[in-house]
Amino acid sequence: MSASVKTAFNVQKNRLLQLIDYCRETVTLRSKPVSRVEDHRSSALYEHEIQGLPGIKINIERDDDEIWLVVDRLRETKPPEITNALLKPWVNMSDDPSVEPVLRGYADGLLLIEAGTHRRASDQSQTDKPTIDPLETVRLEDYDRASEVKALFATYLNSKWRPWAQIEKPRRDTIKIYSKLFTLVQQLEGSIVESQLEVVWGVGVSVWDVGGVVVRYPIVSRLVEVRLNSDTAQIEVRPRDVEPQLELDWYFSQGNPGVADVKQKAKTLYSEIAQTFSPFDHSTFEPVLRTAASTLDEHGAYCLDVASRTDRELPRLGPNLQVTDTWVLFARPRTNSLFLQDLERLRDEVEKTGDGFPPAVSCIVTEPDTDNQEIRLPRYRGVSVSYHGKGEAESDGEQELYFPKPFNDEQVRIVQLLDVYDGVVVQGPPGTGKTHTIANIICHYLAQGKRVLVTSMKDPALAVLQEQLPDDIRPLAVPLLTSEAEGMKQFEHAISKIAAEVQSLDRVAVERDIRDLEGAIDTLHAQIAAVDYEISEWAERNLSSFELDGESIDPLKAAREVIEGADLVKLIPDKLGIDPEFQPRVTDEDMTALRDARRVLGKDLDYLEASIPQLSELPDPDVITQLHQDLVQHERLRRAVENGEIPDLANYGPETLRIARELLSRIETIKSLRSEIQNAARDWTSRVYRLLREKEGQGVLQVLEALGSEIEQLFRRHTAFLARPIEVPTGIEDDSELLRAIDNLAKGKSAFGFKGLLGKRNQKTRLASISVIGSPPATADDWKYVREYVVFLKRCRELVFRWNAVAAGLELPVMDERPGSVFALAQEYALFEKLKSLVETEAFVADGSPKVLLTWGDANRAMYDEEKLSRLESILRHHVTQSQLSNVWSKREQCETVLADKCGRIVDRMRRFFGNTLGNPEIRIDALRSEWSSILTELRRVHALSEHLNTVRVVCKKIEESGAPEYASLLRQPLDSVVDQFIPDNWRQAWRLRRLNTYLESVDAHEHLQQLASRRLDLQNELARAYRDIVVKRTWLKLTENATPSIRSALQAYLNAIRKIRKGTGKRAPRYRRDARRAAAEANPAVPCWIMAHYRVSESLPPKLGCFDLVIIDEASQSDLTALPAILRAQKVLIVGDDKQVSPEGIGQEEQKIRALMARSLHDQVDMHRAQMSPDRSIYDLFKVVFASSSVMLKEHFRCVAPIIEYSKREFYNHELLPLRVPKPSERLDPPLVDVRVIGGYRRGDRNEAEAQFIVDEIIKITQDPRLQTRSIGVVSLLGHDQARVIWDKLVVSLGPEVIQRHRIACGDARTFQGKERDIMFLSMVVAPNDVGAALTRDTYAQRFNVAASRARDRMYLVRSVGLEDLSRADTWRRSLIEHFSNPFAQDETRVESLRELCESDFEREMYDELVQRGYRVTPQVRVGRYRIDLVVEGPNDARLAIECDGDRYHGPEQWMEDMQRQVVLERAGWRFWRCFASSFVRRRKEVMDELIALLSERGIEPMGSEDLPRSSHTEYREVRAIAGGQAADYEPRELSEQVAVAGESTQAPDTVVQSDETTALTPSLLAETPGPGHPSYEIGGSQRPTSDLTTRVSSVDALAGLPIADYAEYSGPPCIDPHAASPSQVMEGLTRIIEVEGPVVAKRACDVYLRSCGIKRMGRELRKMMERALAQLVRRQVVVSEDELGTGDLLDSVVRIAGTPPVRLRRRGPRSLDEIPPSEVQLAARRLADIHGFSPGSDEHLRAILGFFDLVRLTTQAGARLLDILDREFSYVDEFLKGLRE
Fold this sequence. Notes:
The chain is about 45% helix and about 10% strand. It is of the alpha/beta class.
């Protein structure tokens, strides 16, 4: 390590140590020891509180399960009923067993009558009973039977009620305890307000009054888990598998010196103890308690020494410590002891590290790069395949993306960035599939053999992650969440599964399977690309205009022209194309001449149709004769087999014949080999032949074969030396000195060195005798060649030695041990090879013969019998000859082939000759030759037919050359009529139509495209299965490869220990548990994926740096530095969060101390990182800076319906979210937004009882609705969490645990719900006019509102006691949320009276009509995120189909790629598409519709009418009223209508689906003066108050009011011309027509009406300018008068009318929204209403009356502001109008 690198490393280490210390100290700052259990402000249950209570059991052991406490689900019982009629009316009953019933002092007559003791005076049927007035009041003291009543009451009280109360009181106590524990369970599971709790079973509760400080806390504790048993509904408390801990923090904080002694005692006890700690086994804790009593206070006492063990009450406080042996079960904020211990161990690891830290860790403490680096991201492919259009190049070098689930581009980018960077930050807005994304990434990493840790601040964010993984690898992802027992079960299951797989996995087979899958994936990708390319090709043809003889023609127009000339299209049968080559080459004169020629020739034209062979094509008589003889011979051979003379072959297939020929060849080979072997005359051949046949001595034979291979190689080497022959002295290979000399010479050295200058004479002589091609070696290369030859000789000698060694065992000849003997060896071995070949050939024939000759019994015995072998050869040769002669049939077929495409009478005669005469053995040769000669003569005559046919031929030839051979063929047919129907006068028009139709047919691949679409879907499904399979197989393979011997041992050790633990109570159980923990720690790396909250990381994982390849932190915006232990274990990190959602707030931290701590501990940190390490910042904030270059935002939203998520999309994400969820009919809760205004709501602290009561009552209604039994429910308080707790407590009482569990009801603040979702959400604003509080402007409030408003899938309630008028302008987030419920989308959406109006083209409308007429439920232009679907057809059981109408102006060729990519995205979201081109629909409407109807039926979509189509209103508005002071008791929703005050706002009653005929339209009368019963004025807990009735409809409003009120006349004239294609004067003409009908009219409405009449839905910027110019021209020319009634200066806001017409008219609203009614018209109605009814101008009553007059109900803030603005204005013509009315 260089000095600079070492320096940088030391800086990193110091920074990392500082960061760990800082994290440890911030945690310590947050930890404040308490002296009382009650100081935790959470649930607590003391031992004495449960003594004697029914339904509570302790210390239960069942089925290897240790349970310390079980609380049964008991239910309240009612008090005994009073059956005595005399007593009943006098008793005030009580259901509370603690409150006794009492006698009433008074009773009214009605009670006595109902009890049956009295009667009315008018009742003469019971004359034995006294009479009484129902309104009369009777005092008990004055009652004549008072003593009897009192006696009966005493009897009832003593004999019935008090015995019931005595039993019911403890029962109610148990119920309260159950409720408390149930609430605790919900808190632990995150269903109630945000809380990070742990549950502790404390033993040795001690009491002490230390100088006024009360101590009431246990000495020893053990963590437990509390669970609701879903089967029995019991609450169960189990110990967690952790060591007991001392609770001495408060004593330590006080400096008590006895703490050390107690710790030492506990350490000694728990290292020696033979039992597991249990609060029911005193030996496991009593020694510690005694030590604590004596050391923590010198005057302290252990209570068992002074009191009875049966006394479980806590002693009274006193000045001395009193330690009891009682226990307490309580919840408290999660302690950090294990976290701090883990940090300490990790710090030690950092200290020990000397060669670098994991990359993800290093990035935190490393300065960012100052240079820009070019990063090339790897390319991936996977299961989600994009559409491949025409011309797209295939991708090379792509890596596999092992995602088993569909994915989007953002998920791919995450993996790409992880490949390049050490960490990636993913912004995951609400509902964008973060869990789905994480599951995919886990699988990708597991498939590569990597380890993954997924962690989060809270358990609920991780609860469903494991379920997202494929079933086969799900056991490898172990979740340690709320339930430790369940987590350990899964861990044990994982270990068992891993251990079994590691032992049994066949790696070779799995690797083979993976290779097969990789090949299949390659093939599937290629096939999908090919399908897409073909689809693209067809689309381009269908959507583009084409040219016909220079004329550009639209396919749709062409289709209509063809339909109009359908009869002419049928005239020409040929497929005439649109290319120039298909222009007719014949003239009118040609066609006339042809018509005349056809009429003259008549039936003789049959030879025009004849296709006659040439004489040269046919064989002469000699050839025919030879062919005839061959056919006869073949037949004879066939009959020999048929008659049984020759055994038949198994079959005459090509393979059998091939084997027969091969067998024949092999028999010849056998004979040859046997002759050669016999001629060799070697004694050893018979023995070796026997060994080879009987397969004996295989070992020796194999050695011989190996030796033979070397002999052959050496023999080939000898051939190389023949080219340059060498002479060497005999025995040179044994002369080592001479060999060294040759080696030296080959290396260019002296032969014998300096020592060889003298002596070595003999050796030199031998050396000199060596020659190459007769000459002494001259160069080093020559000597190298010599050296090679010497090595060759030596090798020859060695082979001879080895041969002789083998020869003895096989009786082979022994060779002279000289090199030259190797050539003899080659000859002997060649003979051996022949023997071997003979045996193999004989085996082949012996095996093959019975297979081809099934019926010849000697086939398997012929091999070793020469006579039978000859017979076999004869049989095979017969069949081979027969097969060869079979070719004669092909010659005959060739003759017939000449006639295959020929016709005519002479051709028919030839066919009869070939079929009946040729090859017939009964036909004589001379007769055959005569017949054939006659045929040839006739053929010559046909060729010499008259030239009268030439005209027909020439013209028909031209027609053929024009591309119409079939038409020409028709024209060649003989005429049998005077009229020639094939040549009409308008034959040119028929020709054109045929060309058009042919083109349309060529591009009409409708059925083929449907098949391609289906094929693509099948391929996509196959690809998905292949990826799932390869992920599973790669994961298990990599896991097995990574399992070291130590890990395998640890796996087995853990399983052994688990088996021995049994019930956990034996003497050796603690040792077994310790063994299991140690083995689990060792086996930990075998589990490739862990899922756990941050706190579990420190509890469960070894403190090892970088032990996970990837650490994923989910909901990271909620995580602070408590995630540091997880990060330190990471090689790479994936940070998933959202800074637009809830982040840490540093609650409980003292700012000054934190700043000082940061300055002291973080001064050396990276400057840009330091500020992000404060407690109020999240891990997401930190890593967003650290990994600024590698961030991704998930954009596709799958949770909420569009009107709900639109708030977050608009306010927080700049419209970047893409909502893709369109709910199915069964999921819809229309309207999705419910705005509830609680009139009179009152805030006390952070509570609003009226809002709480409404929410509770509404939830009760939901739970009682059979249609909503599976819907989950959540409640969010937008101010603190007290409101949520109030609502929860009410729900527990009102609903009970079962209903709460069924609907998964959760209550809390925004922090509680982060990472969760519910079907229905309630948002309680809490604030009220009496206390609005400070404006919410900080970013933290924005985060809370974002989370709160994005949890609901299908419906969201906003329950508020304030309106916009109560909030300041600075109160941004409350105002924005209220405004969202008023108008969820940024612009008002035009209300559509008919769904058909939504269709954007004639094609869509025709398709819509076809389906609706058949009774289908069809919705046009369905919005899915940023996409639209042309038509959606829905049916029962949520079946639906998306229909795309291609080929109109909205779906041209330029849109095709975008349309197809959109389809791929939506198919991934679950949609199924059916597409159709307009030209196909026009031409083949019936076939296309039949296909569509069949597909609909196949998908379960049947006609069901549209009358019950769910309405898609966005918002419902309700008002409820609280009684004075905000104490809500009752409320009633305000009656609503479907008319609303602002365009686009619509309302519905609270039911999920409301039909239009279920709602009564309310139109107020201008003359109404008295309130009616239907007016929606209610008080919660009060009575109706009198107000003006605005809901009574009067039939003659206009006459009675004296006002000329008219119906609104809507323009219905001829369509206007599209402004893009129209001249300015045409636009002005259209506007004038509209203003004449609708004027006075707001100018913008006039423009909108114009555009809608020509099919344009929206007015963009360009269109706006066009319309403004046209209007301005009309005003300048004084055709139109414009009044700027609102003073905006915008021409389109003005009111326009035709010059000379009245400036104001009073009309009913008609189709207009409030904004579209001229202000002067509104003011006229307003002033008349005030005159008649005496309204105070501008009052709420006045404003509602105005809206009522115009058939509007909802007084929104926007509507109210507009009305007030209009009332403040002066319109002279309104004054004049009213003045004239009064006169």
